[in-house]
Sequence to fold (440 residues):
Amino acid sequence: MKIAVVGTGYVGLVSAACFAELGHTVTGVDIDEKKIAILKGGKSTIYEPELEELIQRGLQSGHLSFTTDLQSVLPNVEIVFSAVATPPGEGYKADLRAVFTVAETVAKNATRGLLFVNKSTVPVGTGQKCEETITQILKDRGAPFSIPVVSNPEFLREGLAVPDTLMPDRIVVGINANEKAREMMEELYRPLTRVGRPLLFMSRESAEIVKYASNSFLATKISFINMLTEFAEMTGANIRHIAAGLGLDNRIGPKFLHAGIGYGGSCFPKDVKALLQTAKEYGVAFDIIEATDAINTRQRFRFFDKVLKALPKKATVALWGLSFKPRTDDMREAPSLDFIPLLLKAGHSVNAFDPAAIENTKKFFPREITYASSPMEAATGADTVVVLTEWDMFRGQDLKELKKVMKGKNLFDGRNVYEPSEVREAGLTYHGIGIGGSEC
Ligand SMILES: NC(=O)c1ccc[n+]([C@@H]2O[C@H](COP(=O)([O-])OP(=O)(O)OC[C@H]3O[C@@H](n4cnc5c(N)ncnc54)[C@H](O)[C@@H]3O)[C@@H](O)[C@H]2O)c1
Fold:
């Protein structure tokens, strides 16, 4: 099929490259000219494993192209995906301006009927409003065709975005009574349904809610285990053992039970807060999700407080990990962005290392902190090392070597990646999360 994907960010770029890989003819569209120029040259604009190879293969095969001109693409496509950002707006309400800009541009310039598919995360009712806006514009133009709006929320995880898109757990499609639209979405996803990936059809409203419900549920699992960490510390228990005991129950499962400094990123914090905002508008109480959000904030700052209290005056702090999670360069709602200002305000200096996110961190702190080219370089002469992101490479660091290069002895493990006994054997003092008693 011939499709356009508008917004070539984390979701749009991956979707465009994967749809091209699956044999569709795809044009990625963005208003950011610099981005489009880089993509046309076969380079990825984000750090995402396997993505650049897909982009290059798509460009070479002719299945993938990029442009800034949405209007010029419209006569040639059957489906337009909108994958633009929906960042937190006033009071954490999702800011839908980009979605409506794309919908209006499509309605004003379309020369034939097509499907408008919303891939962005949007509050329930947005698809309906988009369809009303588009229908009104088409009516005013006297256009002899229609543009139905479909909801197709995205569930990919940054860092695993390509495999998640090519082998999704499920594909959710929300359509309100439109057989032709349903057939088109079936055809689009046939390469995936053929290999057994489930395609679920439901109403547009249900599909819009599924996305927020999924993210809020996963965030709640994280906050649930984090809620128990302080308790574990007080009672001499070990949160890792508690998580293992919980997670081996098939009804619960081990995923998202890893205690740490809480969730960040471009989705969980904003989607949890946006869902709470929508609930408020409808006058319903989402008490569990309120608690999820509050625990997450408390958890992050509880850890920062501990580190700050343990630091000598004018300390040098080595930060290991800056991105909000491993295998991405995404800094949205990253704990490092909260922590660095606190450290600087208290008069400490920061020496940071991250395998992928240094360039993006420099946009926030161009001169205020120093950047190292390896974890050991960051730790050299440091009073304390703080692990903020669980990049795999941190697990394999030589802890005895770490002890040698550091000035101090404290290792604060915000992601519980180390065995406390191994850290202690290396002569360092371990501070994990939720590990009490003799194991702390
Ligand atoms: N990042 C994730 O892991 C993830 C996962 C699932 C769902 N989502 C949702 O997908 C949506 C997109 O998220 P993202 O992380 O890809 O955002 P992003 O900020 O990485 O990308 C958005 C892109 O849209 C472009 N854009 C903005 N306005 C435009 C316009 N009018 N026309 C063309 N391009 C325009 C921007 O230049 C940018 O390249 C959001 O609703 C998000 O909540 C994100």
